[in-house]
Amino acid sequence: MINIRAIPKLKVYSFLFSMPIIDIAVNQILYKERFWWEWQIWAISFPLIFILGFCSWYIRITNSAKAEKKYPELNQTRRRMRYKLGICCLSMVSTVLFISTLYSLLHIEGYRFNLPDVWQGAVLSLVVNIVFETLYDADYAVTKYKEVEEEKEMLRQLSFREEFDSLKNQVNPHFLFNCFNTLSSLIREDKETADLFLNELSKVYRYLLKNNEEGLSTVANEIRFVHSYNRLLQTRYGEAIKLQVTTVPRYDAYLLPSLTLQLLIENAVKHNILARSTPLEIEIFTRDDRQLVVRNNLQRRTVKVPSNKIGLKNIRLKYELLQQDGFSITQDENSFMVTLPLLPPQLADDPALGLTK
Predict the structure, then answer these.
(1) Could you read off the pLDDT of 164-218 as tens digits, one per residue?
(2) For residue 231, is pLDDT > 70?
(3) Is residue 77 a contact partner of residue 141, using CB atoms and an 8 Å limit?
(4) 20, 21, 22, 23: CA torsion to nearest 10
(5) How far apart are CA 153 and CA 37, in angstroms?
(6) pTM for the structure as a whole
(7) How far apart are CA 51 and CA 172, in angstroms?
(8) Quick one: pLDDT at residue 85?
(9) Residues 190-349, CATH architecture
(10) Could you please report the per-residue DSSP string of 171-202?
(11) Does residue 309 sit in helix, strand or coil?
């Protein structure tokens, strides 16, 4: 049995709508024209059939709930409907037969058992209830479809979150590994500079740890971090590296994947020659088409540095997971340029992404 309060409103309303009609029709079958002018039938038979109809309806929806529990999936709709219609047929025939037999045994308002009355009442009730049973199952199927879609969306979000977190977690070890390599070289070459580098590294890495917990960061935050990171590079390379940032204030609140600019600068430093006579020049600027560009002059190292291209791959994958187009890499003889689409501020609050600024 099921809790009355747990019965869907659609089933309750349909019962309240259809039962008076069925009640009148069954009484018409039992008493013919007497039903319309004998008030005793209205006073006794009408409420009695209503009560018996309610009992039949309750038993039927209880079994209907069992059918939904036994065959819950959308691809089991045919079996579920066969089960429900079977219960409906058995219930309607049994109920009308019970009413006719009870009325005859108790001689309610002079009624005598008549088999054609049973079939007429059963067919009438069955037709009405098949219509509503189909409606119930359609409502169940729609609700189930929404649940399935919500579950798929939840799994998609979970998968997205896990993939995005995995990409974020690749940044710190990669960054730290490169910094330790630099620090190792400095210790051998210039211990004083190594001390300065280590001091700046501790500040930058503290900031990096904090911001890497977030999936998206504002342009303003990214630019602030780039300046901090540039001070770290200046400690190591001095005038061999130059950074120029030109961004439009209206894009400050726009978003991009956290630590993207640091990865691109790190990539430029890794693959190019840095010298005071030919400094590595890195430009960061915004375009009117809601894009941020990171460009550096090309002066490739004569000995190629081993690379798994984790930085650029990481950024590209983040944009793909965010389902944002516009990320591109352009290279010619003199420059290397990465174009980053800026994301609207409200994207950080999108529950489908589960990211925070």
Answers:
(1) 555 555 555 556 666 777 777 777 777 777 777 777 777 777 766 666 556 788 9
(2) yes
(3) yes
(4) 40
(5) 61
(6) 0.52
(7) 72
(8) 83
(9) 2-Layer Sandwich (3.30)
(10) HHHHHHHHHHHHHHHHHHH-HHHHHHHHHHHH
(11) coil
Q: If you search the block for the tokens 């969306």, which residue do you land on?
A: 153
Closest CA to 156 of 343, 321, 349: 321
Are 272 and 296 contacting, i.e. CB atoms less than 8 angstroms apart? yes
- At residue 289, what are phi and psi to the nearest 5 degrees? -90, 30
User: What is the spatial distance between Cα 104 and Cα 107, in angstroms, rounded to a whole number?
Assistant: 5
Is residue 27 within a helix (H) or strand (E), and if so which, with residue range? Answer: helix 9-31
pLDDT tens digit sequence for 108-117: 888 888 888 8
Element (H, E) at 106: helix 77-106
State both tokens at 27: 């009484």
Cβ neighbours of 97 (radius 10 Å): 17
Q: Please give the distance of CA 40 from its chain centroid, rounded to a whole number.
A: 60
Determine the residue type at 287. R
**Looking at residue 348, what is its pLDDT?**
62
First to last CA, the chain: 50
Separation CA 250–CA 95 (nearest Å): 73
Reported as half-sphere exposure (CB side, CA atoms, 13 A), residue 30 has a value of 31
Rounded to the nearest 10 degrees, the angle between the axes of helix 115-189 and helix 191-211 is 170
257 sits in which H/E element: strand 255-257
- Distance CA(265)–CA(244), nearest Å, equals 12
Residue type, 338: V
> C-alpha distances in angstroms, 244 versus 118, 289, 338?
92, 20, 15
CATH 3.30.565, the chain: domain bounds: 190-349
Strand partners, 293: 285, 339
Is residue 278 helix, strand or coil? coil
Q: Give CA–CA dist 2/58, Å, rounded.
A: 9
The token duo for 71 is 């065959």
Name the helix (H) or strand (E) containing 235: helix 219-237
pLDDT at position 169: 54
Rounded distance between C-alpha atoms, residue 300 and residue 298, angstroms? 6
- Give the tokens for residue 47: 């409420």
